[in-house]
Amino acid sequence: MKSLLNVTKLTKTYGNIKACNNITFELYPGQVLGIVGESGSGKSTLLNSIGNNLLIDSGEVIYVNQKNQVLNIKQIPESQHRKLTKTEWGFVRQNPRDGLRMNVTAGANIAERLLDVGVRHYGNIRQEAAYWLEQVEIDTNRMDDFPHTFSGGMQQRLQLARVLVTKPRLIFMDEPTGGLDVSVQARLLDLLRSLVRNLNLSVILVTHDLGVVRLLAHRLLVMKNGSIVESGLTDRVLDDPQHFYTQQLVSATLVP
For 235, left (φ over 0), alpha (ψ -120 to 50), or beta? Predict the structure, then answer.
């Protein structure tokens, strides 16, 4: 199977600090890649560097688009990057307020993404918005309500609907369950797992929560001080960690 994304020797520095140091991995269609590590390990910097929200110092990020064109993300023009983020890529932020327009309705949040890809028929837009609200388990009667009237969990699900309506191939998720209580987290994780499977999504998932990656991720990268210290199949890494740092992470999770 041909990889969807190929990251090679990606390096990003801030002064003398290497936030990402020679990061290399591949991501395949339908695969969820988890990235874990303590705060400051470089995982969010890596996510934003891959998504071209941060300029990298060296290395390559190669993406194969739906037309099977090979794109060097560092070299594509800004207009092409914007198009990618509106069509084939989606970003799910930890704080859903960062991924939503809070001053427009739930339906309008979804409609904006459709307008970005050229859909103009009002009836079709509203029908599509209703469909995606249903997919993320939000009552369609809430379509004309504003996001600030929603709970945190509902806002996160609305952000998902907004992202998924353009049927992206690659989703970047940064702590998608952060700040939610345990019961809401569990419901959101079940929904995410179902959507990933049914839509054959490729996902890069950044989190500090090993329970989240165990449930969602096929493969796992463990980061410390800007470097990957361990990688492999998620169950293998978590059940039989080889690196001392990974062993510490797993042990800390097991402590009652």
Answer: alpha
- What integer pLDDT is reported at residue 99 of this predicted model? 92
| Cα separation, 150 vs 156, whole angstroms | 9
The list of the chain residues with pLDDT below 50 reads 255-256
Q: What is the pLDDT of residues 44-80, one digit of tens each?
A: 999 999 999 899 999 999 999 999 999 999 999 999 9
Neighbour tally for 36: CB within 10 Å: 26
**203 close to 196: Cβ distance less than 8 angstroms:** yes
Structure tokens at 118: 């050229």
Alpha carbon distance 104, 125 (integer Å): 15
**Nearest residue to 90 via CA among 171, 156, 200:** 171
pTM: 0.92
CATH for the 5-254 domain, from 3.90.1170.20, 3.40.30.10, 3.30.1050.10, 3.40.50.300: 3.40.50.300
Domain ranges of the chain: 5-254
